[in-house]
């Protein structure tokens, strides 16, 4: 997976946050190996920090999660948690569709 970091409004991102983000995003591959790229955008406005994470997944539109917090680390963690929920939901739907096809095929053979 290729990971790109961008910042808006000139707030630099520390190397600690970059390495943590890389580790957390790599863990998302346990839900699907079809993740091809990730873009992480950090933004800061006065006392709030916003993070947007965009995952490119082969065979589907990109998954996007945004989160706000008082610090970049917490905002990133919230955004990744949202992506995890989206990936879990997508994976459950894929499995449900696959089992429904198998089940319907078995009914046709016996019916």
The main sheet comes to: 4 strands, mixed
What's the CATH topology label? Double Stranded RNA Binding Domain
Mean pLDDT: 89
Q: How many beta-strand elements?
A: 4
Helix content: 40-55%
User: What is Rg?
Assistant: 18 Å
Oligomer: single chain
How would the blueprint of this fold be written?
Blueprint: E1 2-8, H1 15-27, E2 35-45, E3 48-57, E4 63-69, H2 72-110
Parallel strand pairs: 1-2
Antiparallel strand pairs: 2-3, 3-4
Helix pairs in contact: 1-2
Q: Can you describe what's shown?
A:
With 111 residues, the protein is of the alpha+beta class. It has one domain: Double Stranded RNA Binding Domain (2-Layer Sandwich). The protein is built from two helices and four strands; from the N terminus they run βαβββα. The chain has helices spanning 15-27, 72-110; strands at 2-8, 35-45, 48-57, 63-69. The chain has a four-stranded mixed beta sheet, with helices on one face. The N and C termini lie far apart (46 Å). The relative contact order is 0.15.
Key features of this structure:
single chain, 111 residues, alpha+beta, Double Stranded RNA Binding Domain, 4-stranded mixed β-sheet, 32% strand
Summarize the structure.
The chain has 111 residues and is an alpha+beta fold. Helix content is 47%, strand content 32%. The chain has one domain (2-110): Ribosome hibernation promotion factor-like (Double Stranded RNA Binding Domain, 2-Layer Sandwich), CATH 3.30.160.100.
């Amino acid at each position: 997976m290729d990971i790109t970091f961008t910042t808006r409004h000139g707030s630099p991102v520390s190397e600690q946050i970059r390495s943590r983000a890389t580790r957390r995003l790599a863990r998302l591959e346990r839900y699907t190996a079809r993740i091809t790229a990730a873009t992480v955008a950090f933004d800061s406005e006065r006392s709030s920090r916003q993070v947007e994470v965009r995952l490119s997944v082969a065979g589907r539109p990109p998954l996007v999660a945004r989160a706000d917090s008082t610090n970049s680390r917490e905002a990133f963690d919230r955004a990744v948690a949202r992506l995890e929920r989206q990936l879990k939901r997508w994976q459950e739907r894929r499995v449900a569709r696959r089992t429904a096809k198998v089940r319907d095929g078995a009914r046709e053979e016996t019916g």
